Amino acid sequence: MTATALPVALDAMGGDHAPAVVVEGAVEAARAFGQPVLLVGDRARVEAELARLGVTPGSLPITVRHASEVIAMDESPAAVLRRKKDSSIRVCFDLVKAGEAVAAVSAGNSGAMMALGALVLGRIEGVDRAAIATLLPTPRGRTVLLDAGANVDCKPQHLVQFAVMGEIYARRVLGIREPTVGLLTNGTEDTKGNDTTREALALIRSLGLARFLGNVEGRDIYNGNCDVVVCDGFVGNVALKTSEGLADAIRAMMREEVERSWRAKLGYLLMRPAFKAFERRVDYAEVGGAPLLGLDGVGIVSHGGSSARAIRNAIRVAAAFAQSGVNRAIRDDLARRAAPVAPGPQPAVEVQ
Amino acid sequence: MTATALPVALDAMGGDHAPAVVVEGAVEAARAFGQPVLLVGDRARVEAELARLGVTPGSLPITVRHASEVIAMDESPAAVLRRKKDSSIRVCFDLVKAGEAVAAVSAGNSGAMMALGALVLGRIEGVDRAAIATLLPTPRGRTVLLDAGANVDCKPQHLVQFAVMGEIYARRVLGIREPTVGLLTNGTEDTKGNDTTREALALIRSLGLARFLGNVEGRDIYNGNCDVVVCDGFVGNVALKTSEGLADAIRAMMREEVERSWRAKLGYLLMRPAFKAFERRVDYAEVGGAPLLGLDGVGIVSHGGSSARAIRNAIRVAAAFAQSGVNRAIRDDLARRAAPVAPGPQPAVEVQ
Q1: In degrees rounded to 5, what are phi and psi of residue B150?
Q2: Residues in A touching B254 (Cβ below 8 Å)
Q3: Is the four-CA dihedral B333, B334, B339, B340 of positive or negative sign?
Q4: CA–CA dist A294, A235 (Å, integer)
Q5: Strands B290-293 and B299-301
Q6: What distance in Å separates the CA atoms of residue B186 and residue B314, rounded to the nearest whole number?
Q7: What is the dihedral of CA A203, A204, A205, A208, to 10 degrees?
Q8: Beta bridge partners of A7
Q9: Complex prediction ipTM
Q10: Nearest 10 degrees: CA dihedral of A300, A324, A287, A159?
Q11: Of A126, A262, B147, B272, which has the maximum CB count within 10 A?
Q12: Between residues 97 and 136 of chain B, which touch chain A (CB distance below 8 Å)?
C-alpha cells in the first residue's frame, strides 16, 4: 500500500481490548506500511501502551492526541450526540474535518461512529443515508454487503443509493472493472421481495448500472456470483450475525465429532494447516474494517473484538479508501443522475 | 413413531426428482413406520415407479389417487389458484379437507402449497397468516425458525401470532416443556429492531409467554439459546439461504485447502467418519419437512431437492403433527387471549 502523508486518526479507546490491542495495531501499521497514525484517547494510557511496546517518541510516525471522554459500546447514538463533545470518536472525526487526518478509524460503538460521522463530516451531496459496507469471503474472492447494520428502516431510494455507492466502491477500492450488483430478497424472480425491495428493484434497474443482476438470494452473498449485495441494515445485520452463529455452530459440532475418536483426532492434526489456511481466508482480521459509505470523508468501523492485526488492516483500508477517489466518484455519479438530461444531438439513424 | 390410521396424502409429482424419489420415500415410510400413504399424481407414472421398486398391490399400505395436473416450481400462487383445479397439490389438500387423509405433504412449489392450503383448509381461527416453521440444527438440538418464507410483508400482529404458534409447536411436537422464544432483530437491546419488530416486541411481551427472551440476533438461530426464533418470511428466507450459501462456501474452500497437500488429504480420510457424522447432524433430510403452521389442517413442505430419506421423514413429521394436537392448542390459546377477561375473585391480600 501507499501510505498517506497525513495521518489516519485512530480511536485508541474503542473496542473490547482497548487501548492495548489498538495501540499494537497502530504500531504494526506504522512499521509495516510506514503509515502515519494519530492515536486519539487518554494520553497517559496510550503513552503507557506505547512505552510497553518499546516505541520511543519519534521512532515511528505515531503521535498521540488527548481526548478526555470515551463512548461505551452500549451508549445510544442519540445520547452520544447530546453529550461527550470530547469523546475519542468525536475527536477523530473533528481531526478529519479540520484536515489534520485523512480518515477516522474505530473498533468502538459503530452506531456512535455513524452518528458522529454524519454530524461532523456530513454526507456526500445526494446521499440520504450512509451505509456500512462489509467485505465477506467467497470461494472466488470477496463480496461487498451493504448496508451491514447502520439503517434499519430503509426506503427504496436509500437502497438505490446503496447500489450506486457499492458499485463505485467495488470498482475503485476492490479494482473490479464491472462489478455485479444484486438486490437481496427472498428469491431471484422480479415478483419476489417485499414492498420496499420491489420498488427499489425498478428504480435500480432504471439506473443502467453495467451489471445489475436484479434480485439475488442469501446464497449469493457467499457464492461469488455477486460482487455487491444491497439490503437494508436490519437484513444485513441478520445475515451477518446468522453467518457468525452458523460458523461457530459448525466449529462446535465438528469439534464434538472429532473428540469421539482417536482416528478423527489424528486426522484433525494432519488437516490443521488446511484448517488454519481456511481460517485465515475467512478471518475478519484480514479485512480489518468496513467503511461508512456516504460520509463526506472517511470513517472506518472495526469489530469490537478486533485483534491488533485487524486494527492494522483497518488502518490500511482507511488509507486506501482515502486515496481511492470513491467519495468524489459517488458525488459526481449522483449529481449526474440527478441532473436533468440535456437535449443532445439526435443519434444517427442506424442503417441495417 | 405411531402411524396414523388414515393415510398421509403425498404429492407424488412435487420436487426436482419426482415422481421417482418421492415414491421411494413413500415406500420407505410405509416399510419403516407402517404409515399409510396416499400417492397423488399421474397414476400411470406413479404405478410404474411402484412396480420398479417391486411393490405389489396390497403388499404395503400405499394407494394411488390420480391427479391430472402438475404445478411447476416457478408458477405463481395467484395463477395456481385460478387454474389447475386438479393439480396434485390441490388434490392432496382436498383429501385432507374431505377427511380421507390426515396431512398433505409436498416437495413442490411451496408458495402454491401455502396458497392452496389456505384456500382449501382455511386458517385456524385467530390466525391471519400461516407461517413455514423450519427446524435448524444447533450444537444442543434444534431451533424452530418461523416464518421461513411464506409472508414477506408482515405486520406486528402477524409476528405475535407466529410467536404463539411457534411456542406451542416447540412444546407439543419437539417436547420442550418451556420453550425459549425470541424475536429476530439486529441486536438484543429493546431499542433495536425496525418499526415493525419494535411494535411486535411490546405485543409479544404482553402475551406473558413462559420464557420470552425479547429481541435476539442472527447468532441465536444456531447457538441453541433460543428454541423458537420469530421473524417475517423475507428475513427468514434471507437467513436460511445465507446459511445454505455459507455452508456451501465453507465446504468449497475447505476442499481447496485440503487439495493443496497430501498430508491434509490423509487427514481428511481419517476425519471422514467425523465429517459424515456432522453432515448427518445438520442434514435437512433428517428433518424432512416444515409444517405450514396456522392452517386449519396439516400441510408439510419439503425442499425441492428432497431425497427419498427426506420424503420418508416428511411423512413421519406429517403423521406426528397430525397426532400432536398443535392446531387445537393454537386455536384454544388464541381464543383465550382474545376473550375479554372475566372479573374473577379479588386476590387475597398477602401478609408480609
Answers
A1: -80, -35
A2: 274-275, 278
A3: positive
A4: 19
A5: antiparallel
A6: 32
A7: 120
A8: none
A9: 0.90
A10: 70
A11: B147
A12: none
Q: Does A280 touch chain B (CB under 8 A)?
A: no
Are residues B237 and A218, on separate chains, in Cβ contact within 8 Å?
yes
Residues 207-226 of chain A with CB under 8 A from chain B are: 217-223
Which of A171, A170, A169, A196 lies closest to A185 in space, CA to CA? A196
Q: Is the Cβ pair A221, B246 closer than 8 Å? A: yes
Q: How far is B274 from chain A (nearest CA, A)?
A: 5
- Contact status, residue B239 vs residue B184, Cβ threshold 8 Å: yes
Q: Is B283 on the interface with A (CB under 8 A)?
A: no
Q: Which letter does DSSP use for residue A53 in this model?
A: T
> For B275-321, how does the pLDDT look when each residue is reduced to its tens digit (9 = 90+)?
888 888 888 878 889 999 999 999 999 999 999 999 999 999 999 99
Instruction: Note the pTM of the prediction, 2 decimals.
Output: 0.91
CA distance A122 to A102: 15
B-contacting residues of A 6-65, CB under 8 Å? none
Residues A285-313 pLDDT 10s: 788 899 999 999 999 999 999 999 999 99
- Chain B residue numbers touching A76 (CB-CB < 8 A): 191
Please work out, in degrees rounded to the nearest 5, the angle formed at the alpha carbon of residue B72 by the alpha carbons of B71 and B78.
Answer: 65
Question: Cα separation of B37 and B106, whole Å?
Answer: 13
